[in-house]
Fold these 3 entries.
Entry 1:
Amino acid sequence: MEIMRVVRDLVTTQRHALLAAKSLRVVEDYQGNLSVALDAVGCKPGDFVITIGISAARLAAGDPRITTDMTIGGIIDEWSEQEWRS
Amino acid sequence: MEIMRVVRDLVTTQRHALLAAKSLRVVEDYQGNLSVALDAVGCKPGDFVITIGISAARLAAGDPRITTDMTIGGIIDEWSEQEWRS
Amino acid sequence: MEIMRVVRDLVTTQRHALLAAKSLRVVEDYQGNLSVALDAVGCKPGDFVITIGISAARLAAGDPRITTDMTIGGIIDEWSEQEWRS
Amino acid sequence: MEIMRVVRDLVTTQRHALLAAKSLRVVEDYQGNLSVALDAVGCKPGDFVITIGISAARLAAGDPRITTDMTIGGIIDEWSEQEWRS
Amino acid sequence: MEIMRVVRDLVTTQRHALLAAKSLRVVEDYQGNLSVALDAVGCKPGDFVITIGISAARLAAGDPRITTDMTIGGIIDEWSEQEWRS
């Protein structure tokens, strides 16, 4: 799993059906690289979160038919930008 | 999932049978690195899209027997080159 | 599998249910890049460990429904920072 | 999927049984990084090909028991070194 | 698959049960980055080998319940450091 920060929501009108009912978030790693993750916990911009990849991402989405390769599986209680970047 | 931009179509005459009925697109990431993705939504060059990888790529293709490791699963409504590269 | 060093525990109060019963550790690679791994062996900060990824991470967690993509599967008996970084 | 160029054949006498009946090719990406891929289409050195990874690689090999993580799934009709490297 | 060189054996006394009966090797890529792979063919330090990743690693280990994400699946007959690094 990776430690990421939520940047913003992502809106896609033309989207694959199985993803349609879930919220997508743009997340960044400590170098500022952006990815898109499905939100399974209810997070908001600025939160530090744990992202789950590989086939576990589909399980973490609550339904293995959901076509995600990255799912936000938890919000980290205590984490600072200092810990993240060093 | 990753945010990519569609570059062009890709034509392959000698191709594995299970991929044959689907359109392939060359896509690039924000650094200009090229990959090939199966198009499940109907996109065109210049579109910013979400690409889905890992085993979810096969599900997003509509048939898990389709031999893809990257599938375009949505077109992003509002995205600019500025957001992408910073 | 990768050779990693355990940095600290990770506390997440809002966490996906299937991960809830297991301990999470922050681990670093030889370049200091941080990841989060599920601990299946009982390790402590400073230990050099083997991390298992991909679908094998779920099996190594003891239950393939556990939504992990990285699991600590062993503690290395003899390993030094010198071997790791050269 | 990735766009790769075939470099040469690879001969391994001590090889895992399930790979034994298939040809292996050394392939390179646009930066010259080498990998090994199973050839499912019949390609030759110099061909630009599409390589399929992840679990789809096993399906593209024609038998999901074949132990490959990268399979050549198509030969690209029109591709030049210029397109590849820019 | 990747071309790697075997560096040494790896001893782990506290190890996940399903890995216990197999030998682990430290391997390096052409840049000297170290990983750990399960040995399914019987190789020795200095051998150039093919490593198999993703879910195929578990199949190549001879039992898909074995929790490996990288398995040595073959020894390369003719390979030199020159080919590897250029």
Entry 2:
Amino acid sequence: MSKMISRRSRKAGLPPGTPVHIGQQAAEPTRISVLSYDEQNVTQTQPTLASECEVFRQSPLTSWIMVQGLRDIDALETLGRCFGMHPLVLEDIVNTDQRPKLEDYGDYLYMVLKMLTYREATHEVASEQLSLVLGPNFLICFMERESELFEPLRQRLGESRGRIRKMGADYIAYSVIDTVVDNYFSVLEKVGEQVETLEEELVSNPRRGIMRDIQRLKREMIFLRRSVWPLRELIGGLQRADSPLVSESIGIYLRDVYDHTIQSIDTIESLRDMLSGMLDIYLSSISNRMNEIMKVLTIIATI
Amino acid sequence: MSKMISRRSRKAGLPPGTPVHIGQQAAEPTRISVLSYDEQNVTQTQPTLASECEVFRQSPLTSWIMVQGLRDIDALETLGRCFGMHPLVLEDIVNTDQRPKLEDYGDYLYMVLKMLTYREATHEVASEQLSLVLGPNFLICFMERESELFEPLRQRLGESRGRIRKMGADYIAYSVIDTVVDNYFSVLEKVGEQVETLEEELVSNPRRGIMRDIQRLKREMIFLRRSVWPLRELIGGLQRADSPLVSESIGIYLRDVYDHTIQSIDTIESLRDMLSGMLDIYLSSISNRMNEIMKVLTIIATI
Amino acid sequence: MSKMISRRSRKAGLPPGTPVHIGQQAAEPTRISVLSYDEQNVTQTQPTLASECEVFRQSPLTSWIMVQGLRDIDALETLGRCFGMHPLVLEDIVNTDQRPKLEDYGDYLYMVLKMLTYREATHEVASEQLSLVLGPNFLICFMERESELFEPLRQRLGESRGRIRKMGADYIAYSVIDTVVDNYFSVLEKVGEQVETLEEELVSNPRRGIMRDIQRLKREMIFLRRSVWPLRELIGGLQRADSPLVSESIGIYLRDVYDHTIQSIDTIESLRDMLSGMLDIYLSSISNRMNEIMKVLTIIATI
Amino acid sequence: MSKMISRRSRKAGLPPGTPVHIGQQAAEPTRISVLSYDEQNVTQTQPTLASECEVFRQSPLTSWIMVQGLRDIDALETLGRCFGMHPLVLEDIVNTDQRPKLEDYGDYLYMVLKMLTYREATHEVASEQLSLVLGPNFLICFMERESELFEPLRQRLGESRGRIRKMGADYIAYSVIDTVVDNYFSVLEKVGEQVETLEEELVSNPRRGIMRDIQRLKREMIFLRRSVWPLRELIGGLQRADSPLVSESIGIYLRDVYDHTIQSIDTIESLRDMLSGMLDIYLSSISNRMNEIMKVLTIIATI
Amino acid sequence: MSKMISRRSRKAGLPPGTPVHIGQQAAEPTRISVLSYDEQNVTQTQPTLASECEVFRQSPLTSWIMVQGLRDIDALETLGRCFGMHPLVLEDIVNTDQRPKLEDYGDYLYMVLKMLTYREATHEVASEQLSLVLGPNFLICFMERESELFEPLRQRLGESRGRIRKMGADYIAYSVIDTVVDNYFSVLEKVGEQVETLEEELVSNPRRGIMRDIQRLKREMIFLRRSVWPLRELIGGLQRADSPLVSESIGIYLRDVYDHTIQSIDTIESLRDMLSGMLDIYLSSISNRMNEIMKVLTIIATI
């Protein structure tokens, strides 16, 4: 259950804006990689010093900066200074217990999302915080761990497939959010299969530990809900934002990803409903079996 | 339960606007038929090439284009180009896991509805996606399968009964939605009969598998709810839309179909309430029987 | 449960505005009676032809036209033409599965209400649709059956007691709604007595079939709720309506009947709460009895 | 349960504005007493005729008129005429099944509140309707019975303690409402103690009738809720009212009494939550005891 | 349960604005300490007379006045007079059963918060009322008891770490609220651990008294909810307040503490969900055990 409870108490008493890592897992080493492009050119760099990123802020190119691993607080603070980020933003980036949200700082937008992964071994859903800082010509992604999730997007950008290279940093931001939401469907399918399996088992052979499995899945659903629901508000906020950072041509894409978010929320709610029903089946099946035992007992007693 | 879960994961990593079929069933071959009319004339054609439909866009006549079966992606893309449809619309048309919704693209409105069918054999409700693209002088319907549902409407249009021939494409759109909603009542009556039968059985002879039947019906209700609820918003959106594509004279008809939608939502909620109550009866009836067995046992033991 | 489900499927495929009777009971023969008055005079007539009513539309007197029984579709259509009613209104009048609602057609307002009757024999609540068409100087009431409910109102109007004769058709409309709502209280008292009796029985002697009675009453409450809740919206709509058909002096009376509607909704919700609680008592009382049987059994077994 | 159901059916068929007493108890004889004051002077009178009150309407003094007991309909009607009250107000005053509400009649405000009393003997909460008519220089309180509740307020007014004598009739109205709400806390404390006692008993010795007591308390909570919830709206309405009858300087006091109302609503909701939890404890405690009996039985059977 | 019920009845009959201590615990002796500063200087004083504080109202420095213990009503009234506080504010300060709220009195803002403490010994959450009075150059904190909670904040202020010394009284107010909310996370972690422990126990060895522990925790959650939920409204109110007392530069910090409040509300709701699920596990585990006992019994009986 630990992942239900925010572990912010470690921070009590510190001044606001102090970046202290708070999260479920230990922080991983920080690695920066940059993809910088305009319609003609693409460059990929992997700066070893965070301060090398400063050039991208003034560059005429659009830059997508990926920061994977949040252990190196100094590097993050350097980066924060380079791009004029508020200390509270930095604090929220390393404190990975944030709820999904959107904050407009005028010069840039700050967004928090949750990336979900289904772990086959433990049948658990793991969550990772993804922070986005969207400026006029740059997008910075802060991730807790290295991840392959955005590889197809990087390739499309590198090989200039589709409209992606003609558009600005806001389109990259949209693409990143879209990828995250699409990934929710994979995770929900996996969880849905588990629910299905459980239900069949419940009907054919209600073994003893099944209640615990139902309860565990219910907990997963509470967790998923908390990760996905606020995203709806975030994207709605982007749609309504009258910030020059979000161009109008993006609106149609945001509507699309908004729909997908609603769809995944729908799926979560349906799964929750299914799980509630399963408890009822279980209880009635126990009562039924009891009745039968009693009948046997009565017959024997009669004899 | 599979129909509860959106199977979008197949799409992860693809650029937005790529039309890939996603749905519960395999795509069926594509067949196009057009009904083109003004107050005096009606023509019916069945173009073999999607590109033949281009003429209808500029025609002074009003055209109702039916596309049944979504397998032929190329034809759909051609059609999309002919009528200036956005790639995201095409993507949503073939991805048949959409929620009912209304989107205003300026030149045309895009709507998604769910058509429901009650399958007598399996006692299940099947759902099919119906996409409508409403332009100034055309309405395109995209359906997953061939269906007889709109035959009476086509006949009325052909034989010029009622006011239908004097009115524009928006009236056809209304008539299509009205037909879909009227059909919900047939499906709900069938489901309602099942609920009635189950309740009588529950009271007269609560057999063992009845809980499973109740649970199955509950699942159907969740499914029906998801298909019908968002329709209310869609029609409400049409009523409030200040698009030149929806003429004012249509408002009175939309109010009517809005009422019917509310009525079918009401019926769904009542059926859900009934099903919840049935579980309580079942549990108490089991407990009661148990009590009686115990009494018998006690009497025997006493002897 | 049949009365929970709208039987609109009979209409599927027909053009909108076709008046086909849809309802729980067979349609009764149509009988028209008119009460026409100003401050000085009152006339009562019973036209045999619907077309005779046309004079009342232009008359300087205020007319209250009662139509009881909906079998004679032709007469209704004639009446509709005489008073300029939209075909969709006629359709809704004969289709008695409407939800209570208010529709503003400019020249007249169309309202649907539910009249409730408690049937002592079957302990059931029956519902009948009452449609009101309110014009500048006329009110037409369409009822499914003959009913004595409005007799006192007719007498007051005839004998000129109170302010009723000085006021227009909107005041008659208010008086009709008020009478309908007042009648809800009689019905709710009857149902409330049933709930009380059931509760006493539950505590003193929980017989076997009691769960079924509770369930039946629960169903009645669902039904009552659906009939009464939307009325609140209807009256609220009348209060806010800026139609010349509703004079300002009526506002104070509408507020009064609005309060009564809220009161009856309150009563319904309280009764629902009571019924939910009764299930809990029942289950625990069964468990308790079981415990006692077991104790006896144990004592016997010990001996 | 009788107090849950509005007994308005007695009124069906009567013209609106007919004052007929409707309530849980028989009407008590009517007694009028007046307290008239300005900053310097206070006079107390007990007029025997209602018509004697007319002088207070034009008086430069502020008058607080208490009417206790509603049996003498004639006196009430006289009073109504003297102060220009609408017949519907009089009707609501004697019909003591009103919900708390606020109505603005221009010249005066009409308010309905519920006064609660805890009856130690029967452990029941009784409710009494308090109607307030607030004019520019008078406040009339209509109560069902004689009550000592406002004695401290009268004394403060008579002995000129605090700011009360410098202020107008609206401040008296506030003070009356404040007294009523403060009294809710006494009643809720008593009910809360009952809930506490019940819970301790449940844990230490769950006797048979306890379910019935829980159910009875639940019913009391439903009743309390209906009496207190609407008050919030009433006071909110007073705060927003732009009537010259409510001076701005009163706003700060209304905010205060609003807070207290919210607090008592909070307490009610918490008590309801507690009672729901108690059922669960009870059921599980029964099951547990059953288990133990069965174990004993098994051991004996084994021997 | 006592802490659920507001004990305001002691006040019934007193004029509004009479400061009478009402709370769960006896009032503690009053101790005042002041921290007065500008960018260069800091002074700490501990006035023995409340009237000594008057100088801070006119001082060019910013003053943070801490009042710990509310027994000395006279001192509080003196302080109230010195800073122009309304009698109703004083009343609310000593009446420690307030809900969290924000009130704008023009010259100053009045806020009520709840400070929570987890008592290891009894596993209970205790609550203490914190009242804030925010003026243009002063912040007065009224606390029920001495507390170490704000020590780190005082030290930061004294040693001039961070931006704190350059900013006004509103920043101190924000810092105080932030500290209170951060502390909620510590308390919630402790409660969360208890829930975790309980759940493990439930699964491994469901002892008899466990239902009572679940019920007790549920009660704690109701209590926590009531303390934390209204805070959201308070901070939202501060964000929207167009008072000169809240400078614009504070907005970004308020957004931050708002997020944390939402996060702690989320945690509370998740814990509540977990506890509801635990009851289901418990009931099914009892039923299961029963089944097994019965099987043993049947086997023995057979032999």
Entry 3:
Amino acid sequence: MKGAEQKMLRKVQYYETDRMGIAHHANYLHWMEEARILFMEELGFAYERMEAEGILSPVRAVQLEYLQSCTFGDLLTVEVRVLSFDKVVLRLGYTISKNGQDDCICRATSDHVFLDPEGHFVRIHRRLPEFTEKIEQCIHKQGRDVC
Amino acid sequence: MKGAEQKMLRKVQYYETDRMGIAHHANYLHWMEEARILFMEELGFAYERMEAEGILSPVRAVQLEYLQSCTFGDLLTVEVRVLSFDKVVLRLGYTISKNGQDDCICRATSDHVFLDPEGHFVRIHRRLPEFTEKIEQCIHKQGRDVC
Amino acid sequence: MKGAEQKMLRKVQYYETDRMGIAHHANYLHWMEEARILFMEELGFAYERMEAEGILSPVRAVQLEYLQSCTFGDLLTVEVRVLSFDKVVLRLGYTISKNGQDDCICRATSDHVFLDPEGHFVRIHRRLPEFTEKIEQCIHKQGRDVC
Amino acid sequence: MKGAEQKMLRKVQYYETDRMGIAHHANYLHWMEEARILFMEELGFAYERMEAEGILSPVRAVQLEYLQSCTFGDLLTVEVRVLSFDKVVLRLGYTISKNGQDDCICRATSDHVFLDPEGHFVRIHRRLPEFTEKIEQCIHKQGRDVC
């Protein structure tokens, strides 16, 4: 995936496998979360900062396609980028590959909204305009790079 | 959801919550799996039987929409039904509600293919015609009931 | 185990297995937690009540002996009882068996203390004397029954 | 812990927290497993090699003392060393600390046996004498260093 903002390397753990001998499909949501948190950190919006601002961004939807399996010992590369942001819903895209190969073993998206601790929608472009700005830069930059 | 083939009741466990105070979104894939396994069992195709026949049915794709959260102590109802089956991909639909309320807290689908232990596609309608038959009955029956 | 206060039945889930084909050893702590929460509920001290009283009881120590394995589809019986309570540390004992067999597949203990939300020790026998009373009754009752 | 053979650094993940706001106590068994696998790898006995030799080493017992909690974002140091090996049971010791502090937040042990794929005990000092040798060296080396 060209235009990726964040590349995370991550080994598949033994406790993530199931009796089919492969990583259980629920773990991919953990890996996506790990990569997303690093991505936000690199953008300057670490979880701790958002929390201090009183902004939560729960997951509203996910979509995953499992193209190949992976197992204990495989070294995963999880790439994250911004797909869209309409000021309410932020959609991130993920591609996972293994052992330095080009093949994508999983393609996924996650949708996020922004809430205050009482659960009300936060107008993030007013509350944290520099966040909206950064996110929009990501979309533009990727727009140029991605095939 | 009318036309559901299987209703599973399931308490949210303490260890399934995260520090936002709600069940972590990855657990929903566990609950879907639990409900799917019961559903297949009721159709007469328990996991053990499929395994004995040498047929695996890994997850190829999932989609989840998280509409409301749930937490420790909530009693979930997970309903499963067959959405489609084109002889290659079986798509199941899920709705999750909590504490006997009508509101759906999560809507989801999962796609499955049928493989032999070497990872080759199995022509399930030839290998296990009674499976295809049963699954098609589920679609038809649901076709009549669902709004 | 004679003298058990609580017997919980629980199927091993597919997602709890690992590539050795058996339930991964970390899941036993989940099962112990599930059984402990039910046990406390039956004693009249459901988690919700303790939380409302402002009393947390984190795990201070655990010990597990894995005697036999179990796997997907096995029906577990998890039994809990009070081993000791010195007004500071509550020690619970667990035995896990499978599929109605007498053999114990796991023997375990967990130690718990009682804290307020600031993390200070709560003198539980003063704050909630009926709790101490109930717990002591469990020890005595078991004292008579257990071999 | 002086005499440690292996030091692993590992961030606590968001999905590892529970609604008490801290890492759930079952995850420590995952971290111990991660560190143990790295330790064995460094000794020259990677999981893959043992598997190729047809030797499994399931967990027979664990003991954990939770001294302090940790949470999302904490950087853990997990140290492993050999406590004892009587040719049947290998006992490993673990200490976990966080954020570069000296305080130990968790002290633990795990016991392992060596089995063939049929589940029979393997005389590891005959089957893989270089393993026994390495392990014994670890004990001696530590013997000199540890307070």
